[in-house]
Structure formats: structure tokens, C-alpha cells
């Protein structure tokens, strides 16, 4: 049996692991490959409250700070590309090459968002053709 990947539930800035879980059966392995905590009604209330409070802080961030956060997220996706592609493979049966392509698209999208965060203006970026 392969390692079962455990996923917590990020609620109001805290990773929760206890409570109800859902198992994910791999389509090719035909065994449980991951287990994720299920959000509870109280989690949703806590997340909404937290998001409302955090929105005020985020609104005060300088564009360059927002861009830096997005660039770090893009770099993190690339740094973990093989691991994430492996998870896509066991959970969805997706070929590793395709999974790596998906992670590269995630990183590209975050990089484009970072570049836009540095721009001052209100133009719309067309998404057709990206990826």
C-alpha cells in the first residue's frame, strides 16, 4: 500500500486535522491515496469572519507587497511541482507530464497576477492564450 496523503482544512489561518474526513480512492491503484478533513458549518462561519477581518489588512497592502506574495506563491508551486504532480497522478490518474504542466500553469497564473499587482491602473488582462 502507498502512503496515504493527509490534508487538513485551513480555517481562519489555522490547519485543522481532527473531525470528519473523506477518503480519495486512486483510479488506478484502487486504494485510498489521500484523506482530507471535511469543513464543518462552524468552520465556514469562522472562515467568513476571519476573511472579513483580514480583508481590511489586505486592502492596505502596497501593490509591491501583494506582488511579492504572489511571486513567492509561484516559486513555491514550482519548487513543489514534482510532489504536486505525483499527487495528481495518484489521486486522478493523471500522467506526471500533464500534472507538471498543470502546476506550471498555476505558477504562470500567479506570476501574471504578480505583474498586474505592480501595475497601477484598471485595465483588464485577457486570459485567452495563457497556458
Can you describe this structure?
By secondary structure, the protein is α+β, with helices and mostly antiparallel strands. The protein is built from four helices and five strands. It has helices at 41-59, 63-79, 81-92, 96-118, and strands at residues 5-7, 9-11, 14-16, 21-25, 32-37. Strand 2 (9-11) and strand 3 form a beta hairpin. It is flat, with a radius of gyration of 18 Å. 9% of the residues are buried.
State the gist of this model.
This protein has four helices and five strands. It is α+β, with helices and mostly antiparallel strands and 131 residues long.
Q: What form results from the Cα inertia axes?
A: flat
Through-space gap between termini: 35 Å
The whole-angstrom Rg is 18 Å
The quaternary state of the protein chains shown equals: single chain
Q: What's the mean pLDDT score?
A: 88
Q: What structural class do you assign from the helix and strand content?
A: alpha+beta
Strand content: 15-25%
Largest beta sheet, briefly? Answer: 3 strands, mixed
Strand order of the largest sheet: 1-5-4
* Helix-strand sequence: EEEEEHHHH
Question: What features would you highlight for this structure?
Answer:
single chain; 131 residues; alpha+beta; 2 domains; 3-stranded mixed β-sheet; two-stranded antiparallel sheet; 4 helices; 5 strands
What's the SSE blueprint?
Elements: E1 5-7, E2 9-11, E3 14-16, E4 21-25, E5 32-37, H1 41-59, H2 63-79, H3 81-92, H4 96-118
Parallel strand pairs: 1-5
Antiparallel strand pairs: 2-3, 4-5
Helix pairs in contact: 2-4, 3-4
Amino acid at each position: 500500500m502507498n502512503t496515504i496523503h493527509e490534508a487538513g482544512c485551513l480555517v481562519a489561518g489555522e490547519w485543522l486535522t481532527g473531525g470528519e474526513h473523506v477518503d480519495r480512492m486512486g483510479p488506478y491503484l484502487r486504494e485510498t491515496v489521500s484523506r482530507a478533513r471535511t469543513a464543518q458549518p462552524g468552520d465556514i462561519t469562522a472562515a467568513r469572519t476571519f476573511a472579513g477581518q483580514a480583508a481590511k489588512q489586505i486592502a492596505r497592502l502596497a501593490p509591491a507587497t501583494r506582488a511579492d506574495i504572489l511571486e513567492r506563491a509561484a516559486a513555491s508551486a514550482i519548487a513543489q511541482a514534482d510532489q504536486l504532480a505525483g499527487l495528481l497522478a495518484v489521486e486522478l490518474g493523471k500522467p506526471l507530464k500533464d500534472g507538471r504542466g498543470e502546476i506550471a500553469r498555476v505558477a504562470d497564473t500567479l506570476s501574471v497576477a504578480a505583474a498586474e499587482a505592480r501595475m497601477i491602473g484598471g485595465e483588464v488582462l485577457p486570459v485567452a492564450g495563457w497556458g
